[in-house]
Amino acid sequence: MKKILTITLGIAAVMSISSCKDEAYTEKYNNPSKTTTVSCDKLFSGVVWNGRTYGMQTYWGLCTFELPQIGAYSQVASHFTADTDYEGTGSYVSYDNDRWTNFYNDVAQYKLMKHTFESLDAAEQAKNQLYMDCATVWIYDELEKAIDLWGDVPFINACNIQISGNVADSKASYDDAATLYQMMLNGATVTTATEESVSYDGLGTLYSRIQSATAPAAFASQDLLFGGNKDAWARYALGLRARMALRISTQGPLTSLGQSTLNEVSSALANFSDDCVTGFADPSVVAFSYNDGNGMNWGGGWNEWARQYSRGTYKMFEILNIKDGDVMNHTTNVHIAGADPRAAVMYDASNGGVMHYLDYHEKFEDQLAKWQSEASYRYYAVVDSATFINNAYFMHPIMTKAEAYLTLAEAAQRGIISGSAETYFKAGVQASVDLYYAENAKSVFRTPVEKPDATEYINKLWADSSDKLQTICEQRWLHFSFLQPEQTYSEVRRTGYPKLEFRDFTGDASFEIPLPMDRIGYPQDEVNNNLDNMNAALSRLSNSNQYYNAIFWALPAGTWYTVNKLPY
User: Fold this and answer.
1) Span 394-410, average pLDDT
2) Chain segment 479-533, per-residue pLDDT in tens
3) How far apart are CA 317 and CA 339, in angstroms?
4) 104, 259, 292, 492: which has the fewest C-beta neighbours closer than 10 Å?
5) What is the chain's Cα-based Rg?
């Protein structure tokens, strides 16, 4: 057995999607008829806890996957132009595999919770509805991210063996990505491999029900994410529905659904009142610190062995209006004239107070020489040590007001919804400035930077833009940045903005991945344990090289970036 996860929050053991020899099941799994009864409130906590590694910033997620691979593809994270340019840290197979199995451990927990909930009588279901609804919002967020990385993935028939006890359920078929999107947006009744009819509510229903719910007394202690803030869960559901709707609204088979959903949610989204962020170190929520041994340690994720991925990039500096050689420090030159006000709390300057970015136009040996020329490898500007690296009270962005308003700005600019794109844009950028300064203000590492008035800068961004749509999309990318790199990767594949440039290693036989992936390849666990179903999914791809196939909502493969033909 590849992995069995024991939940330590008073929860029963659950299974990952990986399979094993049939004879192993009798010793690895409880007989479902004899399984100890578990409660929805505890299972709800487990669903959030299981998914934390990639659901928020953690050492493991940042170091192994989000910065070196996904951040490199969207160029929010720095990377040397070395031989493993598009292979993350050089071990993309094992780390992509971990990303996959982490998700399915979470799905297994959710499926157990759903089965437990549906086994209750009507009165008990009513008492536990809020737990079930919030867990579904969380798993839909994780499912959407899985789809956006891989395309078709197992879900309907995934992780059902712990419920059915049927060995056939250990090898799950892959669901069509667009169909899963439809299910999450509007709900669906589906039939499992064992002919069981299962209903999944859409995010619109979940939002309405959470919004009107009365939270049980135990909800605050069981809600690891928002500490019992039911309104934050409602905003999360609303914002997630808008995110999914925008993603499918520009091309692909679900554009009409995406556009109609954006129209449906636009009024509520325009009243998005606050960020949905979680600060696990905040004693009012859950008393975990950033290096507490529970796998958070986000400071290490940005600053330890993977630190080359936390340096300022050419594209980040371009969008922030920082020039190489600009002077900035945290005393006399806090703000660079003409630069984005977020720069002061997003980056620390290089040694000597000078801003340098890692330029992918340069040869590897030139980059390395600069890297090694300064003590502590500080030739290149690094993500801010107070805001991110040493911030024990860091707030993990789950859904933000800035994203909501920039969603409305893009939808208005494209003519999908009514309203002023300019007004939404300015509100969105201001909300992004507010979020980054709120992150900095939480830190006790050094005196927080006083937030400047960003009005003039934001007005100039809009007034000087010759392509309003591009400017909106660039600001969405900048807002997500290295805080939510999976979102930047999705957004740039969907829109082609910002305009990224990559080196082309095509023709060099030593490169398995000569250009950035349009989708992540299916992991080794599936090769080992679910090969037939994986091959069925691969057979539906148009390109025999699985890395170079567009997700259904994305621009055609290879068209979301340009190729750098400079000799190296």
Assistant:
1) 96
2) 999 999 999 999 999 999 999 998 888 877 777 788 889 999 999 889 999 999 9
3) 9
4) 292
5) 23
pLDDT in tens, 281-302: 554 544 455 555 556 777 777 7
Residue with tokens 């300015």: 426
Q: Is residue 320 part of a domain?
A: yes
342 touches 457 (CB < 8 A): no
CATH number at residue 455: 1.20.120.840
3-state secondary structure of 104: helix
Rounded (10°) CA dihedral 319, 516, 70, 254: 90
Burial of 95: CB neighbours in 10 Å, binned 0-12, 13-18, 19+: buried
Main-chain dihedrals φ then ψ at residue 153, nearest 5 degrees: -140, 155
Q: Which two tokens stand for residue 86?
A: 């598009």
Residue 417 lies in a domain: yes
Name the helix (H) or strand (E) containing 133. Answer: helix 122-150
> Does 375 map to a domain?
yes
Average pLDDT over residues 231-241: 97
What distance in Å separates the CA atoms of residue 439 and residue 227, rounded to the nearest whole number? 18
> Residue 57: which of 291, 298, 225 has the closest Cα?
298
* Rounded Cα distance, 369 and 131, in Å: 54
**Tokens for 367?**
């980059």
Alpha helices, H only, 360-452? 364-371, 401-413, 421-442
Measured CA angle at 315 (ends 562, 452), to 5 deg: 150
Determine the average pLDDT of the residues in 89-118. 86
- Read off φ and ψ for residue 564, nearest 5 degrees: -85, 115
Please count the structural domains in the chain: 1
Phi then psi dihedrals of residue 416, to 5 deg:
-75, -40
Element (H, E) at 240: helix 230-247
Closest alpha carbon to 227 in 238, 215, 237, 239: 215
CB 473 within 8 A of CB 560: no
Give, as one character, the DSSP assignment of residue 414. Answer: T
Q: 360 vs 78, 321, 549, CA distance in Å?
A: 9, 18, 25
DSSP 8-state code for residue 24: G
Instruction: Work out the angle at residue 335's Cα, subtended by the Cα atoms of residues 333 and 339, and round it to the nearest 5 degrees.
Output: 135
Sign of CA dihedral 185, 186, 192, 197: positive
Distance CA 439, CA 451 (A): 11
* Total residue length of the chain: 568
CA distance 36 to 30: 9
Query: Cα separation of 143 and 226, whole Å?
Result: 20
Query: Is residue 50 in some structural domain?
Result: no
Question: Is the distance from CB of 524 to CB of 457 less than 8 angstroms?
Answer: no
Domain extent, residue 375, equals 298-503
Q: Which residue from 404, 405, 391, 485 is spatially nearest to 436, judged by alpha carbons?
A: 391
Residue type present at position 496: G
